[in-house]
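Today's session is about reading a structure prediction critically. Students often jump straight to the picture, but the first step is always the sequence itself: look for stretches that repeat, for charged clusters, for runs of hydrophobic residues. Only then move on to the predicted structure, which in these notes is written as discrete structure tokens rather than atom positions. Here is the chain we will use throughout the hour.
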Amino acid sequence: MAEALTARFDLPANARAAGRARRLVNEVLSTWGREEDAEVARLLVSEVVTNAVRYTRSDDPLHVQVVAQKDRVRIAVGDGSTTHPVLRPMRDDDESGRGMHLVAALASEWGVVDKPANDSPGKHVWFELAAPVRPRIPADATRSPAFHLFR
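Below is the predicted structure for this chain, in token form.
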């Protein structure tokens, strides 16, 4: 298995949870040198945490886990609700309901895992961001006049 960096934090399920999750995820990814993933990760964790706050009881804490591997970052938000997020049809005048559409559009993968039956009720909503592809430039290409012209 590839080496992974892992961070986990708990948040109260309240109106400030999404903002705190954004800041913590940004801090963790920046510390790990994964700034290229931070912008999308902040947006998506905010959407998933907002859903969790909306559908769980306020006395159930939220659990956020960030796992970074060489080729991806995976973020999971656990809550005490058994209600799964749904991609429902949207109308132009809808004031909510777009969050999971953003997750589906921007994440390389996402899903929901129910907590084991012997655990407290709830689920984990997760998403992954594939590492950006960095093309390998052959050594002889850097000697080309075109390489220096378009760099």
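Discussion point for the tutorial: Strands lie at 5-11, 62-69, 72-79, 109-114, 123-130.
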